[in-house]
Specification:
The chain is an alpha/beta fold. The protein folds into two domains: 9-67 and 353-463, Aspartate Aminotransferase, domain 1, CATH 3.90.1150.10; 84-351, 3-Layer(aba) Sandwich (Aspartate Aminotransferase, domain 2). Helices cover 38% and strands 11% of the residues. The protein has helices spanning 9-20, 27-35, 82-97, 112-117, 121-124, 137-148, 166-178, 183-186, 201-211, 233-242, 262-265, 310-313, 336-352, 354-376, 411-420, 444-464, and strands at 69-70, 131-133, 157-161, 187-190, 215-221, 246-250, 269-272, 287-290, 388-390, 403-407, 423-424, 426-428, 432-435. The chain starts with 8 loop residues before the first helix and ends with a helix. The model has no long low-confidence stretch (mean pLDDT 96).
Length: 465
């Protein structure tokens, strides 16, 4: 897991306020933090939606020319400005030379995915040969489980966290059914303790220790979609492998959000989508990881032409020369129009670096948490203000940039009032509003403005009731 910063976010906020001789809640604190932010120029690499273009906006409540407060990068990242250029390059190539585009240009269509795979290495902490860019997340999860989940009469369970994202839950259910297994007996779901929202690492490890001999695969998310909890991936990996389990992760909410070291942690396999923090557009090209230790032992259960070595692929002799490791899992040619947006985004990550982004993210989300607790913490309940509870863990190493908020009043009208004011976030059942200040394109001033708009939304919601 990442080392803690030298100064906790709350201490940084208070220090800056002290230097400015103002309250920590003063707008000047946000402006100073933005001044000191070495990554602030990356915001210019993205299209930020204007409030006037948002469907639910109430133009009487906003300045139509202002940027929206976009805190939904955990669901769909913003568009990098270079996406259009890269798409136009490929469309132009197709228009002008047709099939010759398969072999020519900076993204030849035959190897378009491979040309950008190297840009993923630092983001997931893996060697290039361990990474493959293909398909969508759940398709990749199915392909990986077909190879890693080989149940026996004694070892037949898949371990996962409670309230895993539905696609993971359904994928596991269907894999178990494919093997003729009883899903209730074979899906081992780890739940939080009574009255708690998130899982304790010791509880996860205890289940692995006690039941590991009957568990074939452990599949957890890196960061939980609802609570925003960042699981201790190295500890889960080590514990699972000590009991003879394969350990894999769904990194949909972790990739591009927290630092990952899949190779060094010894994770067996992983998969991720790219349209959240990796900003590749809705339904963008997903990725998968297979540790190099499995390169010659774990093979794809379903094979396609693009898993064949490129040097002999076009001999067309139907004698499979499977590429060892992750690239052998490729089935079809890469969709070049999906490669383009991911390429544009990954180049930005290369310039910014995950280490620097994570450092900013810790402070950005910490600043948001500080202000929420200041205005809406439980001790404020006596003042008759609504209580806003952060269910995401407060420990820095146990979360990414997302905070999930629950409220002491119904959230439907609060959410609607936020939307009217140009705040883009989302509500998730049963009662959470998820907000995610993304370090690549969100600012400290965004956080400051969000708190003011939240206050206005709460007041408006109260007036309705």
């Amino acid at each position: 897991m990442e080392p803690l910063p030298l100064e906790l976010p709350a201490d940084t906020v208070q220090r800056v306020a002290s230097e400015l001789r103002c309250l920590p809640t003063d707008e000047r604190v946000a402006l100073r933090l933005d001044e000191e932010d070495k990554l602030r120029h990356f915001r210019e690499y993205f299209h930020i939606p204007k409030t006037q273009d948002l469907p639910p906006i109430d133009l009487s409540l906003v300045n139509k020319d202002e940027n929206a407060i976009y805190f939904l990068g955990n669901s769909l990242g913003l568009q990098p400005k270079m996406v259009k250029t890269y798409l136009e390059e490929e469309l132009d190539k197709w228009a002008k030379m047709g099939a010759y585009g398969h072999d020519i240009g900076k993204r030849p269509w035959i190897t378009g995915d491979e040309t950008i795979a190297g840009l993923m290495t630092d983001i997931v902490g893996a060697n290039e040969k361990e990474i493959v860019l293909m398909n969508t997340l759940t398709v990749n999860l199915h392909l990986l489980l077909l190879s890693f989940f080989k149940p026996t009469p004694k070892r037949y369970k898949i371990l996962l966290e409670a309230k895993a994202f539905p696609s993971d839950h359904y994928a596991i259910e269907s894999q178990l059914q494919l093997h003729g297994l009883n899903t209730e007996k074979s899906m081992r779901i780890v739940k939080p303790r009574e009255g708690e929202e998130t899982l304790r690492t010791e509880d996860i490890l205890e289940v692995i220790e006690k039941e590991g001999d009957s568990i074939a695969v452990i599949l957890f998310s890196g960061v939980h979609y609802y609570t925003g909890q960042h699981f201790n991936m190295p500890a889960i990996t080590k514990a699972g492998q000590a009991k003879g389990c394969f350990v894999g992760f769904d990194l949909a909410h972790a990739v591009g959000n927290v630092e990952l070291h899949l190779h060094d942690w010894g994770v067996d396999f992983a998969c991720w989508c790219s349209y959240k923090y990796l900003n590749s557009g809705a339904g963008g090209l997903a990725g998968a990881f297979v540790h190099e230790k499995h390169a010659h032992t774990i093979k794809p259960a379903l094979v396609g032409w693009f898993g064949h070595e490129l040097s002999t692929r076009f001999k067309m002799d139907n004698k499979l020369q499977l590429i060892p490791g992750a690239n052998g899992f490729r089935i079809s040619n890469p969709p070049i129009l999906l490669v383009c947006p991911l390429h544009a985004s990954l180049e930005i990550f290369k310039k910014a670096t995950m280490k620097a982004l994570r450092r900013k993210s810790v402070l950005l989300t910490g600043y948001l948490e500080y202000l929420i607790k200041h205005y809406y913490g439980k001790e404020k309940a006596e003042a008759k203000t609504p209580v806003v509870n952060v269910i995401t863990p407060s420990r820095i190493e146990e979360r990414g940039c997302q905070l999930t908020l629950t409220f002491s009043v119904p959230i439907k009208s609060i959410y609607q009032e936020l939307e009217k004011r140009g705040v883009v976030c989302d509500k998730r059942e049963p009662n959470g509003i998820r907000v995610a200040p993304v370090p690549l394109y969100n600012s400290f001033h965004d956080v400051y403005k969000f708190i003011n708009l939240l206050n206005s939304a709460l007041e408006a919601a109260e007036r309705k009731h």
